[in-house]
Amino acid sequence: MKVLVTGGAGFIGSHLADALLANKHAVTVVDDLSTGRREFVPGGAEFIEADITTLKFVDITQRIAPDVVCHLAAQISVSESARNPQGDAEMNICGSLNVLSAAQRAGVKRFINISSGAVYSPLATLPYRESAVAAPLSPYGVAKLAVEHYCQYFAQFRGLPTVTVRLGNVFGPRQNPLGEAGVIAIFLQRMLGGEPVEVHGSGAQAKDYIYVSDVVDALVCLLDAKLPEAKDMTGRCYNIGTGVPRSVNEIFTLLAGIASYRLAPVPGPARPADQRLVTLDCGRARKVLGWKPQVKWEEGLRWTHEWFAANRSMFAN
């Protein structure tokens, strides 16, 4: 099977490319390297440096004629989306529309859209099911929800089979610690350098954290899984998380122990439009895909620490 991975030089995308190659798929990675890294792209994959918002991307997709598109390229910072909603929309909405159009023209058999638990309303009942009210707080969540609706449109009216994965907070090796997305990566990078660690707000805010290999397993399952017919958008969505909330304060304490870090956290301002509590109900993925998370929380933290300890200089400013 030929698979095109947008954002495949990034954190999740590069792990996915590794797994696809291990499963004997032909992989093409498209990434503009604005945040991804060329060295993360596995040697067996074709790599093309390109921006998903351009006509060049459409031409690339036509040439490759992939069976599946896994769309991971995105602006991923909630805080950045609050500072610059227009820039976020240009990448996450307009860029995604370009990818959808290119996939439809190329006759793609399945389009896997990567969305987020940030689309859910904070007033919805926890843990969030796919049918819960979607009323995002942040421009990032708004953009992700908009793309889900566009996926529904392309599925119903343009013949492009689409499916959306709503991810929890993914962590693991290769996550970029220099931005504002990925608290575990950010904390580890600073702890390993003996630098102060800032905790935004009270630190009681808790999210559904999931190790990157568990996410990749779910995406691989979706490549050719027989999915039930779905008339609306929510029927085409699958939550991927653990269903267990972990607070920022808990993460700080555990990582400080693993990294032998002795400094106290530095209090910082709360982030705008940040959800206070997110947990995902992943029963649909278990039932339809036969998927469930395999990596234990503390084990994933240790593996992530080991990778950052060995590769901290990679992200030096």
Describe the 3D structure.
It is a single chain. The chain has 317 residues and is an alpha/beta fold. The chain folds into two domains: 2-170 and 209-240, NAD(P)-binding Rossmann-like Domain (Rossmann fold, 3-Layer(aba) Sandwich); 173-208 and 243-279 and 294-315, UDP-galactose 4-epimerase, domain 1. The chain is 39% helix and 17% strand. It contains ten helices and twelve strands. A seven-stranded parallel beta sheet has the order 3-2-1-4-5-6-10, sandwiched between helices. A three-stranded mixed beta sheet has the order 7-9-11. It has a two-stranded parallel ribbon with strand order 8-12. The protein is globular and about 55 Å long.
- Number of E strands: 12
End-to-end C-alpha gap: 39 Å
- Contiguous helical run count: 10
Percent of residues in helices comes to 25-40%
Order of helices and strands: EHEEHEHHEHEEHEEHEEHEHH
| CATH classification class of the largest domain | Alpha Beta
Question: Sheet bearing the most strands, described?
Answer: 7 strands, parallel
% residues in beta strands: 15-25%
Mean pLDDT: 95
Named CATH architecture of the largest domain: 3-Layer(aba) Sandwich
Shape field: globular
The quaternary state of the protein chains shown equals single chain
| Helix-strand makeup class | alpha/beta
Outline the low-pLDDT stretches.
Answer: none
Number of domains: 2
CATH topology of the largest domain: Rossmann fold
Report strand order across the widest sheet. 3-2-1-4-5-6-10
Q: What is the CATH H-level superfamily of the largest domain?
A: NAD(P)-binding Rossmann-like Domain
Radius of gyration: 19 Å
